């Protein structure tokens, strides 16, 4: 049987990595074979592209940024995601295409039509089985990540950029209510975890 594909989305500090690790544990306990991966990245070439995309010394056109994201994704689908799903392995990815619509579409104001074309080119009709969008306020997200690591090329953006990213995520969730579950990530870790568990119950059944 084909594995399920779960993606986690949200701005920095929303709790994606934290809940991804927990989801991995939860699904393994249930006897599933699971791999965790991330975007941009997930393959040697994708990780090299991630290095370029997150490097704050790089200056690039918004369309270059989008093209590199989708190039990394093409590789990720081909080498990791699709082969795993067809051998029955579940795949949990820290970000996927909704992030391109949020960051390059909302944040960088790239045309949705172009992003739709890239999505269609790279993945056709393929979509995650479920996407958990962890919605956190910009202030809490910043506070949670402030002393963890140095800000990358995206994290250096102003609040206004993240306001547009968040708005684009919420718009995306409204457009695909069956697939995207919005989780209030301002809640305590325990409460977010409970919401995450509830949100994947339908695909675990
Ligand atoms: N609901 C929560 N309440 C309090 N702290 C939280 C919550 N969720 C996450 N955190 C803490 O916030 C920090 C950032 O969380 P995490 O790394 O999971 O976020 P992320 O979405 O993966 O961020 P990034 O995009 O920067 O990788 C961690 O220290 C984590 O323990
Ligand atoms: Mg993370």
- The strand order across the widest sheet is 2-3-1-4-5
Secondary-structure element order, N to C:
EHEHHEHHEHHEH
CATH-defined fold name: Rossmann fold
Per CATH, the superfamily is P-loop containing nucleotide triphosphate hydrolases
- The CATH first-level class comes to Alpha Beta
Gyration radius, in Å: 16 Å
Strand content: 5-15%
Biggest pleated sheet: 5 strands, parallel
Beta strands, count: 5
Structural class label: alpha/beta
CATH architecture: 3-Layer(aba) Sandwich
Question: What report would you give on this structure?
Answer:
One of its GO terms (biological process) is dUDP biosynthetic process. It is an enzyme of class 2 (transferase). By secondary structure, the protein is α/β, with parallel strands linked by helices. It has one domain (5-204): Rossmann fold (3-Layer(aba) Sandwich), CATH 3.40.50. It has helices at residues 16-29, 44-54, 62-86, 97-107, 112-123, 138-145, 159-175, 189-204; strands spanning 5-9, 34-38, 90-94, 130-135, 180-184. The radius of gyration is 16 Å and the shape is globular. The mean pLDDT is 96. Bound molecules: adenosine-5'-triphosphate and magnesium ion.
């Amino acid at each position: 049987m084909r594995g399920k594909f779960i993606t986690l989305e949200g701005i920095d500090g929303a709790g994606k990595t934290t809940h991804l690790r927990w989801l991995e544990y939860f699904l393994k306990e249930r006897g599933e074979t699971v791999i965790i991966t991330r975007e941009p990245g997930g393959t040697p070439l994708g990780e090299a592209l991630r290095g370029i995309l997150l490097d704050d010394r790089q200056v690039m056109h918004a369309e270059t940024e989008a093209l590199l994201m989708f190039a990394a994704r093409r590789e990720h689908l081909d080498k990791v995601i699709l082969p795993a799903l067809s051998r029955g392995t579940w795949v949990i990815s820290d970000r996927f295409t909704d992030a391109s619509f949020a960051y390059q579409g909302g944040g960088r104001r790239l045309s949705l039509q172009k992003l739709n074309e890239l999505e269609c080119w790279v993945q056709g009709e393929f979509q995650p089985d479920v996407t958990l969008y962890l919605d956190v306020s910009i202030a809490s997200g910043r506070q949670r990540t402030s002393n963890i690591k140095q800000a990358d090329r995206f994290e250096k953006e102003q609040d206004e950029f993240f306001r547009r990213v968040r708005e684009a995520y919420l718009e995306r969730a409204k457009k695909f209510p069956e697939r995207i579950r919005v989780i209030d990530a301002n809640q305590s870790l325990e409460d977010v975890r409970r919401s995450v568990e509830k949100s994947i119950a339908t695909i675990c059944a």
